[in-house]
Amino acid sequence: MNTLLKGQVAVVTGAGSGIGAAVAVALADAGATVVVNHPNVPAPAEEVVGKIKSNGGTAIALGADVSKEDEVIGMFRDIVAQFGTVDILVANAGLQRDSPFIKMSLADWQFVLNVNLTGQFLCAREATREFLRRGPDSSRSVATGKIICMSSVHQVIPWAGHCNYATSKGGIKLFMESIAQELAPHKIRVNAIGPGAIKTPINRVAWETPAAEAALRTLIPYDRVGVPEDIAKAAVWLASDESDYVTGTTLFVDGGMTLYPGFATGG
Ligand code: NAD
Q1: Secretion signal: which residues (predicted)?
Q2: Which domains does the chain have, with CATH numbers?
Q3: Which pTM does this prediction carry?
Q4: pLDDT of 97
C-alpha cells in the first residue's frame, strides 16, 4: 500500500481480467477507491473486487458495455451518486476479431471499432463532464482529472490480419492527443499506455506454449514477455501527481518492441 492516489476515485473499464484487473488492483493499492467495470459479466469483476478488499482496499464492480452510450452514461451517474465524483479513468476495455482483410466482415470491423475506439470516446467524455462539473480540488490532486487510454504498440506498428484492431489503436493515438490538447487548459491530463506483448487472455495463443513464447520473444529486445503488473505500475504513475507535467503522451511499456528489433544486427 502507498498513498499516491489516496482519496481519489478511479474507474477501470474491462477490469475483470488481464491488464485491467492488474491496473485496478494497483490503483487500489495506491489508495484509490476503484470501480471495476465489466461488460455485464459480473463474476470475474467480483473476484477482482474481492482481491482488492483482501488487500485492504475499496472497490465495487459495475456493469456497462463501453460501446453503448446509455450504459456508459448510467455507469458514471451511479459512480457519482455513490462516491461523489471521479478523478481517474483508465479506458482499458478492448478486444480482437481477427481475419485477413479481404475476408473481414463489416460486423467484425464495426464491433472492434465500437468497443476499442468509440468505447474510449464515450467513457472519456463522461469522465471529462464530471471533472469539469466538480472543478479543481487540490486536496484530491493537482490535476482536475486524469484519463489514461489503453492503446497498444499497434498504434504505430502495422498488423496484417488485424486491420480493425490496429486501426482502433491508431485512432486512440490521435483521439488521446486531440483531447489532451483541448483539455490541458482545464488541468485535465490525458495520456496513453502502449503495451507490447503482455500475458493475458487476449493473446493466449502467442505465449501459452514454450515454442510460441520463444517466437514472440524474438520481437522483444528485452527478451521477456510482459506481465499485467508491468502496465499497472505505469498506470499508477500516470494517474498520480508524480506525472503532473505529462499530458498528450504515449508511454510504451513494451520491452523495446517498438525499437524495430529486425534492425538490431544492422538491418
Ligand atoms: P483481456 O481480454 O483480458 O481484457 C479485455 C477486457 O475488456 C476483458 O475483461 C473484457 O471483458 C473487457 N471488455 C470487452 N468488451 C467490453 C465492453 N464492450 N465493455 C466493457 N468491457 C469490455 O485482454 P487484455 O490484454 O487485458 O486487454 C486490455 C487492453 O490492453 C485492451 O485494450 C487491449 O487492446 C490492450 N492491449 C493488450 C496487449 C496484450 O499483449 N495483452 C497489448 C497491447 C494492448
Answers
A1: none
A2: 9-255 (3.40.50.720)
A3: 0.98
A4: 98
